[in-house]
Specification:
By secondary structure, this protein is mainly alpha-helical. The protein has one domain. Helix content is about 30%, strand content about 0%.
């Protein structure tokens, strides 16, 4: 069993239409990867800095932030 959590295709199909598309500025990171990482943090209680690298960098840019800029 993998220690990583990934959104399945059905969950991603429900979320993806609500995310911004074709925004100007810096290239966005992979939304599915970041959201899977956020859910991993919520599920395991670990800090983002302690997440496996597969979910993205330990300090995601503000363009990847769901809540908006810090």
């Amino acid at each position: 069993m993998s220690r990583l959590f990934w959104l399945d295709d059905d969950a991603w199909a429900a979320i993806e239409p609500h995310l911004p598309k074709n925004q100007p500025g810096a290239r966005r990171v992979d939304d599915r990867r970041v959201i899977s990482g956020i859910l991993h943090v919520l599920k395991t209680g670990c800090r983002w800095q302690d997440c496996p690298a597969e979910y993205g960098p330990p300090r995601p840019s503000t363009t990847a932030s769901i809540a908006g800029p810090a």
